[in-house]
């Protein structure tokens, strides 16, 4: 039985890399490197096979998926020969990408979005569809009283004005269409009491937030190392240089502050105290899709002896994110089938800013994920 | 009840830093930073208190402990004011450091060593003594048939010639004296079948090898990170620049090769394959006691996209090792009291080259250690 | 004949390190490491000897110089034994540090400052005095019409209100007292047409701005390297982590922007184009007086092949600046004696933001400096 | 008038990148990035134009130039589209690459080599030919008495056995054919008194040794920086990780030692003393043609304060070397035409191990080169 993956932001770098990769896996042209669900501790027949995933989505961008894939190939993100070979498969997926609807009210917009998803499900006779948000990061929305209760929200959406930010409206539409929803971005997504109420009402699960692709991944193993060794982290400072799509957005002071706070959160929660230092994000167009992050950690050892470490991470965010998008789609689909609804806190391994009050150690998160995968059967 | 810590190499950097630190802890002049047994998950009333540890040892060096402590203070390894304040305590410990005996046969030497330890135990009415080897790294010894059986070993030791390398003779002496033995170095120590037989016969536990102080500590969290994320490590290369005591020894081609192999072992066992690359050790006198390690890791992500990370670790080996020596003495003493004998494989967290067939992930090793500590009561 | 060095900000880190160093040099307790005027190409009998320098200055801080020197010793900036040994010399200098005067008008304040300098000159029968500004960096001042002409400036200073920022008032006082003036900071100093007029009228030379102590020093050799090799620098981004005195000031967004622009200027002027990227300054208290700067440079080689380099600089700003302060005092005194007045553009080697339209290559600047030194005799 | 460039090792990475680049420049498909002779200070109408260079050479490899170019494109060294577009030009050059002759004596081999070069010159009516050695690095040859005098050398070459290593035999053949010779490698080349005699006899110039492509380029600007600032370099240690053609050869202990010594020479000669430390070369196949060099420099500032810097250089050796090969061919041709014979010490800018007793500062070498270029007209 086939499973749909409906990508919000389907013509962006992460989405297109996911789609190219899934097509390459189906065609046996690549290995599932970077796919966590292929780790021996997680592999499970309950997860839909790569070959059984069908892709569609919404996007406001009109540049076609093939063109975007060619641009990614030129930037070294995906191999050019794959894009050539998979040309017709990619063009076919592009036909299932719909412009983002604009209704007179947000209620109408959400209904049109849900209808696009439902059409997709029926067209390919899909057992179920998982909606994954991989659109650009939004600014934090203003609070609104209708965010707290589902009935108030329904009423407000029927009126004029923007009650929900786009990511939350996407979650609303997904739940309305009976789909699981995963937010791979730092945006609001399903993180509102009214949306939680809707997810539970519709019996669908949701997951998020903010895929752990680079520097935070390292923090999630290094901070526990310092904690386990009882070394005292005095400062942890860093800078992220990035030039791709999200770079310009994230380097805005406001987004920067939000993102930076989320990046330092793991330290406080792992170490039990907040070291000095910040993480800056800087937009450098020439860097392109390969992000360079540098961190300096100063720490005290026995008798207060000062020591330090630094690291440089030079990774391709889209290539790190794409296999996780496939993992999350497979896991959310299996969880939905297994009858789970509400927040999937067991997916914390994947996220910088996970749902729920969870352990921030990567090893602990992996153990939770492995156990969760075992319960899906 | 007091516990003795008998250090083989008692006037070396690691030993002296341990002794200064224990005295400072006893006097309330410092916090137990870097002491793993102070982590909330490990803290236990079954472990001897820092204030209940008494120090003595063997060394071929004749420069006094106070002088060595002053040299470490000048090098920034320990605070100068602590050495001043603790002057008389350190001088008192120095009185309990004995020159390494030289008998006509190794059997005689071992008997004299055991007798020194026994004298120490009685002099301070110690409940038990743990012997910890922190002497310089030896070259790998030639194999000898007497290494395999205790009766053959006893016979060979009574004859002329060197049957056991110094670290193994120290283990023999420790076991003979009914003491637990821990090898903090890469040397042979208790790793011979005949010595295992002796430890079991005498009902004493032993642990080792090669304290995980710097680069390997990082490997023990970074390699599992790549494994958990199913990323493909293509190469892992590094260089260690060090100038302190062990530097000249370790940079010898033979020792270098042995050490380097031990450093790469964790990769093979964690990843399931051996990436390209080596770890070099280089002696640079100006670096002093602060070791600088640099590693470059190249890895492939989704669709084979090449990525890389590098890190620099600038740590003081003695200050990283010393609290672990205290941890190991406390844990080995508690294990001995709890009736354990033979290899303490649960101590893998502390070692580059741990005893037994154990998981190399730091997080997994920590969990094993925490459980072990819980069973000691 | 003795020469005075009057330091504005005489109890700050740079000033105190300079004073400790000069006293140590006089006493033969150290070598002139980091003193450029000791380079064989620059050494000259026309420069006042270290032993002939007398120190005094202004400061608003009331914590004594000895106490500050002890704090610097604790931070590892100067050796503790030197501070102990030189205790009485340092206390004697502290007696020549005056509180910054506060007159009813800026004219009165400047007159009181000049009078303090003149008293100092007479008290020690100094041949001449060089005033060096090493006070904290100021915010950029608002433009004022009186900045452009000396007569207008004199009139405005006699009225109420602050016409000149503190650094410019110090230059005004120095010139009034017939002294050469050097600004080691990014502040305004003598960089106003009216002050230039005054310097020429009084026949005194001046120099500046912003001592080249760390990252910009590297830029001044690396940018010419890329230029000479005709490689195309695509981006140059960096971050400076610093925790000492100036850290908090410089990390303010406004000061940060000004400083960052000055740091990138060298690139534009050396390469002939402005690469992508910025330099950020970040205040991290735990870093203390040792600044860590990290830079990433991406560049294109033949056929556009993308390459990259990164560097980390871990330097002590005060220890890098102090010998330059001595160099500048010696050079400015000799220039003054040689009859030079107005801007000393030949001192560009020392500055991030040098006076005049000069070559930014360190090697070119060194050649100019060596020639200049040769002309002083 | 056209100029020939005869490459010894014409199917190696450096040679092929040079040939692709020259063809791309001729076709107007690229800019001369990395070509030093395009720097405004060096540009000269006396240098043969890129469009006037004709390529040929010797190689023992039989894999065609086009295939090698495609492999370089796959490795990211040259753009794939260029190789496609220039396919026929590259194939035409391949027709001018001759197998390395093997005569019964070295005299016969050299004569056959000279004859190949002469044929090439006549076939394309070239004004002159420059021979450039870009073959793999050789082991240092055993000394031979015939190396010292030309008549003895001629006699010895006519006998059996290998008197000259391949690079020196290539120089002998070049001089015999009346061609200028440049050695871009660390091999012997023309560095024998007998060969110098021959060059002078034939009135041809020669240059070398060992193109300054990466880490040594940085040393040539950083070491002078420390010297100019009178900072005391305490240690300079490094490691070069490389996986391309020369990697396996250079990582051999003997070659490694030779190369490492050459890399440290610049320090001694620039600083006036030899700091601690070594440079290691390590072969890591996965690194491919992009070399990663990491260096740690520890230095003392004022009052002995210890500081440090480190850098990572991630460059493509072939793409860095190729434009220099074109530069050297142009400069050697112009020098030959201008009547120069014997060693071209003015080319030190290009080499790690330059001919003659020259300044090792890159800026000084650039000034010498610019002056030299000016004299060619």
Query: In CATH's first tier, which class of the largest domain in chain A applies?
Result: Alpha Beta
In CATH terms, the superfamily of the largest domain in chain A is NAD(P)-binding Rossmann-like Domain
Number of helices of chain A: 13
Strand order of the largest sheet of chain A: 3-2-1-4-5-6-11
**Secondary structure: helix percent of chain A:** 40-55%
Largest interface: A-B, 57 and 57 residues
CATH topology of the largest domain in chain A: Rossmann fold
Domains of chain A (count)? 2
Shape of chain A: globular
Beta-strand content bin of chain A: 15-25%
Low-confidence stretches of chain A: none
Structural Rg of chain A = 20 Å
Structural class of chain A: alpha/beta
The CATH architecture of the largest domain in chain A:
3-Layer(aba) Sandwich
Let me know the average pLDDT of chain A.
Answer: 93
The protein's oligomeric status is homotetramer
What is the H/E order of chain A? EHEHHHEHEHHEHEHEHHEEEHEH
N-to-C terminal Cα separation of chain A, in Å?
Answer: 16 Å
Reconstruct the topology from this structure.
Four copies of one chain form a homotetramer.
Chain A (H helix, E strand, L loop, with lengths): L2 E6 L4 H14 L26 E7 L5 H10 L5 H6 L1 H8 L2 E3 L6 H18 L4 E6 L16 H8 L8 H11 L3 E4 L9 H10 L2 E4 L6 H14 L3 E11 L2 H6 L2 H19 L7 E5 L6 E11 L5 E11 H21 L4 E2 L18 H14 L2
Parallel strand pairs in A: 1-2, 1-4, 2-3, 4-5, 5-6, 6-11, 7-8
Antiparallel strand pairs in A: 7-9, 9-10
Helix pairs in contact in A: 1-2, 1-12, 5-7, 6-8, 7-8, 9-11
